[in-house]
């Protein structure tokens, strides 16, 4: 979810008084009937077209400031199919969050729907193919609504007694452990980590097929498991656990094209949170330093600086439900650490530039070139003995293993082709 999109979600809009949840326009009837048929036929192309285009156009025409018809109203048109109704409600709640301000009851109902949907995927027999965009949106929205609920719950002073009682009654709704457990369960049940390992050995074609199953099976569990690793990356970043965040992403080689690059939102979320976690851990390699350099430039602009502050307000999750300033203190601390790291990277970037042209240089001379005082340079970046910096050129070690492996594979291919030739 982008920052701009999140800002849009905070509009205080209420459901219009003339909204009738049981009224189903003909365009909605046609939409659900055709979507249901395409899902049963595993027509991914048509599903994608209806999901991306038709749903949005109908929303703009009939439901710009109102929810879609209730699931009970559309169920008769789709044979009361349980799984389709869960998918419809998933879109229903996502539309509600995007266009209106959900009530506490609606937030809890959305949690229940995700639980039921994921339970079907984890423990039922799901024989359908869905577009990667939809599957990514499920995971992305699941994490977003968790984050939104934590912010909502933290504002206890504005809650009525009825809302507080409802929060206590449904204490498990959007619980951080429940969210993590569902994402982890999808990863484990899908066996996606093993699939990606086997792909490296040439035993799987997951990336080559973008996760789709062209043998008549289902892609839902595998791709949800794949995207759930990115969801775990994001949740652990929200919790400030950057080590675990990066560990969750290890099975995905982000230096290569993958299923995560097939969906723009997934690609941006992956690279952004991967880079963010590395910045906070000071573990970005020299090749990845452009990430912090870009942030350094952006943070120098007033508008961007305001967005950084806003992002940290929504980044740090407050989930204990107590009326306190813990969430404010948490985001301020993380913001302070983040801006300190950006400042460090700005300074180090300048240090690298000057050290490329010197074999030795005094600390005072380097400080003068960089237009900073010597104590600042010493405390923030380097502390050489006797105030003299000696530059040792480092050459990357050559790696021959990959080259020989590629040649071996080529040779085996040639030998296989030779064996197929029938000599007359």
UniProtKB/TrEMBL annotation:
State the InterPro entries in the record. Answer: eIF3l
* GO MF, one example: translation initiation factor activity
Pfam families, per the entry:
Paf67
This protein's superkingdom?
Eukaryota
| GO CC term, one of those recorded | eukaryotic translation initiation factor 3 complex
Record has rRNA-binding as a keyword: no
Q: Tell me yes or no: is Cytoplasm among this UniProt entry's keywords.
A: yes
Per UniProt, the keywords (alphabetical) are: Cytoplasm, Initiation factor, Protein biosynthesis
What is this protein's record name?
Eukaryotic translation initiation factor 3 subunit L
Recorded source organism is: Sesamum angolense
